[in-house]
Specification:
The strands form two sheets. This protein has a seven-stranded mixed beta sheet with strand order 2-3-1-4-7-6-5, covered by helices on one side. By secondary structure, the chain is α/β, with parallel strands linked by helices. It starts with a strand and ends in a 13-residue tail after the last strand. The protein is 33% helix and 23% strand. The chain folds into two domains: 152 residues, VC0802-like (2-Layer Sandwich); 163 residues, 3-Layer(aba) Sandwich (Rossmann fold), CATH 3.40.50.
């Protein structure tokens, strides 16, 4: 059994722990921003292939106490890096520190790189090269106030990069956060789903992949391909298994719309790149005017939020209209909005039945749940 750590958007740790358990993980332990677990290399491969929530799967290769920079150097130098990857691979060291008493994180990062290269030179007579842009191998170091842990990244590119060629869009929602929101919303494949502000279509594509039981990592490569212990036969077995689970692509009750025709086209391109364009119904429509596509279902959206003053003023007028549209045309629906804007729940005029803290990158957000019932859900002002 090996020891791993899976990172994820903060707020989705419980969902990630469930996925890892399904992949065969044991001794799962959730902490803010990820889940530690034990498992075999098959568990690691499965987690990379099937997790919709994880950002990276990291393999722990060293752990120990430290007081000075040289303690961390020795910890890194003791790792048999030459057994884990070839000297021909390029590398980069990534550093995360919480309450570390050491003065320079950049200097510690440099010392870990030196330790790796020095150990290679002792063992092989050569040093690997550093590539800060697109390294073959990623080494992650994590420091607390007294302990250091070193990991090898088994994922490579972040797992939210599913391997499809997406049409670019400004400030996209990461795929793993979108998948996590669908899970938090309790959406189940086969039931109606609507994103009325679909942008590039991230919610729609994640839902389509879920509906057809398509592994999110099926179209991409991974960091463990470049590790010395890569088991190609085991990986091929898991790929064959995943291919066998795929369901034929058929139309689904998944609906998307946007007020911008350009955004609708971007969403269409992204769905087409994944082979999912036939199963999602797209249209250009204003959220404030469109009707519900079914008597009940789940609505998810990442609405705009104000940064500049004029945007804030525009949204102050938009949010009450959004509440009216939901009340008038979406009775029977459960509606979920992820927003970093504290004004949305104040101005939408509906009472949130649940507020879940989430992070979109470094941005603290709330996932707001509104259960729309016939009649009004507006807060009533006390009479008199």
């Amino acid at each position: 059994m090996e020891t791993f750590f899976a990172t994820c958007p903060r707020g989705l740790e419980a969902q990630l722990a469930g996925e890892l358990g399904a992949a065969g993980a044991s001794r799962t332990e959730a902490v803010p921003g990820g889940v530690g677990f034990a498992g075999s290399w098959e568990t690691c491969y499965r987690a990379n292939l099937w997790s919709r929530i994880a950002t990276r799967i990291l393999w722990r290769v060293a752990h120990g106490p430290y007081r000075r920079e040289e303690d961390i150097y020795r910890l890194a130098h003791d790792v048999p890096w030459h057994a884990h990857f070839s000297v021909r691979r390029t590398l980069r060291v990534y550093m995360t520190a919480i309450r570390s008493p050491l003065k320079s994180i950049d200097f510690i990062t440099l010392r870990i790189k030196d330790a790796v290269c020095d150990r290679f030179r002792v063992e092989t007579g050569e040093r690997p090269s550093v590539d800060t842009a697109e390294p073959n191998v990623r080494i992650h170091a994590f420091l607390t106030d007294s302990e250091a842990t070193l990991y090898l990244d088994t994922s490579g590119e972040p797992l939210y990069k599913r391997g499809h060629k997406y049409a670019s869009v400004e400030a996209p929602l990461k795929e793993n956060l979108a998948a996590g929101i669908l899970q938090l919303a309790g959406w189940q494949p086969g039931s109606p789903l609507l994103d009325p502000m679909c942008g590039s279509g991230t919610f729609l594509l994640e839902a389509a992949l879920m509906a057809h039981d398509i592994a999110p990592g099926l179209a991409r490569k991974f960091g463990f391909f470049r590790l010395g212990n890569f088991d190609a036969a085991l990986w091929q077995k898991l790929l064959t298994e995943a291919e066998g689970r795929k369901k034929p692509v058929v139309p689904q009750p998944i609906f998307g719309s946007d007020v911008s025709q350009d955004q609708v086209e971007r969403a269409r391109q992204n769905l087409a790149a994944a082979g999912m364009h036939e199963c999602v119904r797209l249209e250009c429509a204003d959220m404030l005017l469109r009707t519900a596509p079914a008597p009940e279902g789940v609505l998810v959206a990442n609405p705009p939020y104000g940064v500049r003053l004029e945007e804030a003023e525009r949204l102050a007028a938009f949010y009450p209209k959004l509440g009216d549209a939901l009340k008038q045309r979406f009775a029977g629906w459960r509606c979920y909005f992820i927003s970093a804007d504290p004004q949305l729940p104040k101005l939408i005029g509906l009472k949130a039945t649940k507020r879940t803290p989430l992070f979109n990158g470094a941005l603290e957000c709330r996932l707001l749940e509104y259960r729309i019932i016939a009649g009004t859900m507006r807060r009533q002002k006390p009479s008199g």
